[in-house]
Amino acid sequence: MEIVPKNIWHNNQEEQLVEALNKSALVSITDNKGIIISVNDAFCKISGYNEHELIGKNHNILKSGKQADRLFEGLWDSISNKKVWRGKICNKKKDGTFYWVKATIIPFLDNLGNIEKYVAIRFDITNLKESKDLVKRVENKFKIFFDTAPYSILVTDTNGKILDCNAKTEILSEYSRNELINKKITDLNLLSKIDSDYLSKILRVSSAKPHKIEFEITTKAGRNVFIEILPHHIKFEGETIVLNIIQNITSRKNILKELEEKKNDLELLLYRSGHDLRTPFTTLEGLVNLIKEDPNNISTPEILDMFETVIKDGKNLVDNLSTSSLLIKKSISKQEINLKSLVNKTIKNLSHIDGFNSIGFNINIADDFKINSNLQMLSSIFQNIIQNAIKYKRPKNNKHTPFIIINAFKSNTGVEILIKDNGLGIYPKDLDKVFDLYYRSNNVKEGTGLGLYITKTIVQKLNGTISVKSILNEMTEFEIKLPNCI
User: Fold this and answer.
1) Superfamily of domain 13-130
2) Mind listing the pLDDT tens digit for each residue in 208-235?
3) Which of 301, 383, 396, 403 is the most exposed place for a label (fewest CB within 10 A)?
4) What CATH class has 150-248?
5) Contact between residue 156 and residue 203 where contact means Cβ atoms under 8 Å apart
6) CA proximity to 107, closest of 156, 34, 41
């Protein structure tokens, strides 16, 4: 069947078509050099210019500067070669605001096939463009938030299949993103079988009030880490996904464990301190009774010496308890302390201890050596270590002279203090116990066993470290590192 072309336009309907186009689109016509020769009302309205302001100008009057020159170079390359150009252009209104159009520019040819003019038909897409830009900005912001969040984010389906994860998740699990995506959590050996089954159940069931769950995971490198997961079930494009917020709570677990240990230590401290304080009081009570029984007793001077010794021992215990109270304070006062003067004063205060006069002291501290620290705490450190060195000395004889050497020097981070003696030493099996609460050496049964525990706790409170090394019946050396050296 032969198809006969029909003329579908009658009675000047071409003019009606142009009128319909004028009402629905922004129309401009330029000559073959790009000079505007005609604009419709819609074009004038959106641009803010009237017809007289536009005729005789080129479209540069509307150029926004937001698009690269190569866009317009490509446009002119197309239409000057008699091709239709389509694209999106950002224009600037007379008032300086911007609008977006979707444009079609058509070259019109004369009877000889030469370009006579260009007709541009544009549609305002500003709202659509702004909506898409808004969506894009929101997506970019979410991506930035997702990638830089201070905690791990793991996106899964309800079967535990990993759909996405952020950089923090890679750091936490020590698996790369490629190793995680499209894998099931339960297939990665992160969790024990029991925990995997429990997590799978949680992911399948949506909860109106999500709650945190704690697990211990094993990372790819084999490290054990405690985590806290807060799963959120979200409807997305007709499906349910689970947004799992994960935090590493290993440090918190360790702190809680340490606090529990400190609580137990405190209970033991209170019990044993009460017991240890009874000893000097009982001794004093006995000495008082001796004097009462015979006021003229020729042994009264010796008894008074015993009084002094017992009182000083009791005072040392009370000083330790007083220092212990500082350890629970959130902040401690600090002052400038002359280290050599403090050490000399501490040694003088310990001169009542039996055997003190047989010990040779070698203090290698500069006269002007100063440290910014807490006086009471620093005094307690020296008192406890030097007191132990005196008590645990080996007797003086022709072959052995007890000594205590104290060195202090500045370091890059603060001050280092070394306290060394040549006494009884510490059994190798006890080296890791000397700082435990109420540890007592097998060599000497006397003493409270409180001093070194308090010493280590003080050093930690001052943001320092303390360590000990010893050779039985040869030497013991404590190394203390403290910050804030002046």
Assistant:
1) PAS domain (3.30.450.20)
2) 667 778 888 888 988 888 888 888 888 8
3) 301
4) alpha beta
5) yes
6) 34
Instruction: Please tell me the chain's helix, strand, coil percentages from 3-state DSSP, rounded to the nearest 5.
Output: 40, 25, 30
Mean pLDDT is highest, among 27-41, 147-161, 189-203, 445-459, for: 27-41
201 with 158: CB under 8 angstroms? no
Report domain extents, the chain: 13-130, 150-248, 255-483
* Fold match, 13-130 / 255-483: no
pLDDT, tens digit, for every residue of 324-366? 555 555 567 888 999 999 999 999 988 878 889 999 999 999 9
Interval 425-432 mean pLDDT = 87
Q: Say what the alpha-carbon torsion angle 91, 96, 99, 100 is, to the nearest 10 degrees.
A: 30
Backbone angle region of 34, left / alpha / beta, with phi > 0 → left and psi within -120 to 50 → alpha: left
Predicted confidence (pLDDT) per residue in 92-118, tens digit: 999 999 999 999 999 999 888 899 999
Cβ atoms of 99 and 123 closer than 8 Å: no
Side-chain-side CA neighbours of 94 within 13 Å: the count stands at 11
For residue 240, the one-letter residue type is: T
For CA atoms 146, 151, 157, 158, give the dihedral sign: negative
In three-state secondary structure terms, 42 is: helix
- Topology at the third CATH level for domain 255-483: Heat Shock Protein 90 (3.30.565)
Q: CA dihedral in degrees (324, 325, 328, 331; nearest 10)? A: -110
CA torsion, points 456, 458, 461, 465, in degrees to nearest 10? -40
Half-sphere exposure of residue 215, counting CA atoms within 13 Å on the CB side?
A: 23
Q: Looking at residue 92, what is its pLDDT?
A: 94
